[in-house]
Amino acid sequence: MVTMHPLMHVVSACVREPSVPFSIPIPMTTSPSASLPRRRVSGFVCALLACAFATPALAQTAVPPVVLVVGDSISAEYGLPRGSGWVSLLQKQLDADKIKAKVINASISGDTTAGGRARLPQLLKTHQPKVVLLELGANDALRGLPLAQTQANLTSMTQLAKKSGAKVLLLGMQVPPNYGASYTRQFAQVFTDVGKAESVAVLPFLLKGVADAPNALQYFQSDRIHPNARAQATIAGNVLPELRKLLPK
């Protein structure tokens, strides 16, 4: 509901001429100078009304763009204190840099590209994001799902996001070497291929500086799969430069 600005009510005084015989009304003569104050007041009231109706439009332009993160346990703060994951740190860094954006974390631990594909239409409708970050695919590999299926799901999600008017950033993942050199290479290529085919941005490896660090174990929880709290700032730092490029100027 729009709240109108308070307006000053202007009351014009009525001047009556002295009465004359037979109560014949005497016409009043108004000089140009006499109407000048009323014109000034009318202009003032119009200006106030213009400001009142302009306020909702200004408020609409001030709404920060939404950044929607659709991911798995890497983004869902698995095993971490609430608010300490890389997605939360990303929001804090945007705020510190005075970049207006609202980050919505729609990540679910254990999610696959198929799960993300099923959830995405409603997420897009609910949040109407300007940018969508897709961090999915690792659980597909852990479950031994076909790479073609992973690629098809990522492609579908990318197309859905683009159709809604959002820009897309694919957050690439890599699998451990014990999966075999061929599979490891093909898995990483999936993200590159989708990004190229759909003309969207790709961060080749979300965990760069974490999983490939010389002392990588210090950045992981005891399961050696999920990054610990120490790694979250590095992950957020990997994403932030790419996200900046996609946010409205």
UniProtKB/TrEMBL annotation:
UniProt cross-references to SUPFAM superfamilies, sorted A to Z: SGNH hydrolase
Pfam families from the UniProt entry: Lipase_GDSL_2
InterPro entries reported in the protein's UniProt record: Ester_Hydrolysis_Enzymes (IPR051532), SGNH_hydro (IPR013830), SGNH_hydro_sf (IPR036514)
GO molecular function, one term: phosphatidylcholine lysophospholipase activity
Residue intervals of the SGNH hydrolase-type esterase domain: 69-232
Protein name per its UniProtKB record: Acyl-CoA thioesterase-1
Provenance organism: Brachymonas denitrificans DSM 15123
